[in-house]
Design goal:
Length: 242
Amino acid sequence: MNTNVDSSDLPIEFSKVNIDTDNHAILRQVSLVIGAGAPTVFIGPNGSGKTTLLRAAMGLVTASSGQITWGQAIESPPLRRAIVFQRPVMLRRSVLGNLHYALASAEVPRRERQRRAMELLSLVDLEGLGDRPARRLSSGEQQRLAIARALARKPRLLFLDEPTASLDPAATKGIEELVRSVSASGVKVVMATHDLGEARRLAGDIVLLHRGTIVERAAVDQFFSAPATKEAQAFLAGELLF
């Protein structure tokens, strides 16, 4: 699977981006550069703007003002990007049926789809479950299948919104291992999480949001060992941000 990120995809650059909806500011003056390497992880309280920032980086949300670029492209269609939402919808098909649908949507030739589907099943550790109805999978298995569907397009950028929310520890461990594997293959992973432990285990760099603004951005070790802002210090201490 050719997953190397090239110059047409990265960096993703936000320049003074504001995103408003229904006269309410969701993101405010966001300036951020996301480059290649280990996962970039967005953290912050509920309502801080993590999901909106993730969707904007994917290209699903248009800036009200400011500019977002992917490499040299402005408002480029997200052809080599994929996103997995917090609660992915399973098609009323088998596990393999879900993958074949994703591969067809990615315009993979029919003769190659079965081989690719089996490769994806192996990658996400769902071998032997190909004939099972996707909606009868456990929550963790459904999340892994959703990631497999996203990878059907051979994305260079993979966006994950709270991929382990509501999963038990065993399922969470499986998703984290999959994220590491995908990242190691050369795919740039950008994810949002509410779980500080997960952020610490997976991130290369951390972006902390509060009330739609970026209050701190740092390498993971620096962020957790020596947070520079009072908001980051309070958040790591488990205090509410106001």
